[in-house]
Backbone:
């Protein structure tokens, strides 16, 4: 991986880029996707990185076997310097965390073998069978929020709870342990948590999952983890610790991204009352609205981070072996060559070709589940609370700047 010393750093922009409007993509993305689809930027770590920004080139890069998603490769474009934190200095936790990082951060045949263990649990048919349960969870969370009364805070009272409860169901976390389990996972992603609190929460969650997986290995039940364990016995793909890491990966990725889409989608609809009126008048638009909200916000913008394994010619530029590269889903999803008037939220738009879930072999495994949860949320939330409003101007909210998943920390609401 090269550094800014290799070029005139004064002419290389910083990544991530600031947003003039917190609900829009950075203004620079328009220029990147149309005029400079492959360009350089400087990460907060001080390293330089290639940015790929046009829709077609992002798709091309994400299916290129010459790039790797291995986060442990020396050239991988981590946003921040890899300075060991107090949590990372714990040898046991460091080892476990590495296993989590390798859950799907591998390539080729190894990645395909791991996906074969999991993908059968997230087919359209299996996910749609969950609709009644997801609806029940959404209704229960709204019942509790309404019972507690207005005002409320959307993230903690609803947006985080819905996907957390869904993933606990899928992982068959024992009922007696769910409150503890949810509290620990919330601590892991809470910006207010201290390093020590996150460290302990990581240890607690991994220990809980370790026990859960051991129980499944002793007596594989007919649920998601039980079936994964049974397939693994047949295929011999993962060690015990790697299955724990996969479960942790499914847990974390299964609720944090969806939670941020719930909060950002709610803000987006409230800030576009004409679109909200369409949805309230016709809840059947929810599925289409979800695709447009996913395109519009692209909260996992740097999820397409890769490292080149050999020299690659793309978009008229040469990415050298060892260079880091980020496929910008946010820029691709606002590419005017593909989406007319992309900065406009239009829930009747045909946005189904968006790249919010990535593309190719590393496309998000849980995309059907995320779509289902978001569809149920947005077809229900404003029907139950038609007077919902945010009590703080959106520009004054605190956003998750410089993180792997864009979102907002808190959303104070009333109705």
Residues:
């Amino acid at each position: 991986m090269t550094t800014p010393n290799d070029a005139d750093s004064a002419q290389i922009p910083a990544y991530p880029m600031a947003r003039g409007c917190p609900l829009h993509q950075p203004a620079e993305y328009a220029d990147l996707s149309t005029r400079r689809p492959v360009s350089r930027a400087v990460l907060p770590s001080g390293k330089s990185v290639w940015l790929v920004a046009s829709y077609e080139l992002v798709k091309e890069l994400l299916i290129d076997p010459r790039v790797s998603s291995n986060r442990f490769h020396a050239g991988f474009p981590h946003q921040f310097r890899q300075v060991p934190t107090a949590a990372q200095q714990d040898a046991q936790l460091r080892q476990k965390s590495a296993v989590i990082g390798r859950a799907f951060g591998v390539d080729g045949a190894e990645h395909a073998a791991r996906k074969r263990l999991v993908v059968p649990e997230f087919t359209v048919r299996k996910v749609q069978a969950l609709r009644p349960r997801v609806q029940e969870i959404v209704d229960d969370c709204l019942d509790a929020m309404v019972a507690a009364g207005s005002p409320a805070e959307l993230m903690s009272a609803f947006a985080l709870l819905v996907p957390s409860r869904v993933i606990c169901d899928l992982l068959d976390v024992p009922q007696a342990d769910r409150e503890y389990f949810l509290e620990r996972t919330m601590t892991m992603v809470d910006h207010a948590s201290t390093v020590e609190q996150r460290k302990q929460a990581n240890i607690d969650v991994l220990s809980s999952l370790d026990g859960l997986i051991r129980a499944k290995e002793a007596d594989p039940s007919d649920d998601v983890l039980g079936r994964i364990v049974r397939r693994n016995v047949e295929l011999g793909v993962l060690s015990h610790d790697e299955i724990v890491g996969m479960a942790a990966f499914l847990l974390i990725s299964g609720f944090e991204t969806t939670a941020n889409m719930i909060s950002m989608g709610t803000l987006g609809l409230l800030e576009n009352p004409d679109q909200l009126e369409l949805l309230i008048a016709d809840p059947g638009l929810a599925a289409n609205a979800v695709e447009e909200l996913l395109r519009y916000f692209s909260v996992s913008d740097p999820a397409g981070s890769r490292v080149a394994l050999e020299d690659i010619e793309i978009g008229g530029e040469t990415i050298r072996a060892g260079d880091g590269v980020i496929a910008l889903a946010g820029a691709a999803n606002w590419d005017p060559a593909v989406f007319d008037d992309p900065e406009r939220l239009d829930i009747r738009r045909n946005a189904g070709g968006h790249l919010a879930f990535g593309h190719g072999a590393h496309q998000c495994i849980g995309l059907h589940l995320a779509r289902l949860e978001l569809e149920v949320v947005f077809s229900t939330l404003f029907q139950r609370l038609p007077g919902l409003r945010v009590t703080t101007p959106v520009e004054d909210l605190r956003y998750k700047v410089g993180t792997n998943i864009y979102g907002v920390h808190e959303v104070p609401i009333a109705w």
Q: What stands out?
A: The first strand starts at residue 38 and ends at 42. The domain at 4-414 is CATH 1.10.630.10 (Cytochrome p450). The chain is about 50% helix and 10% strand.
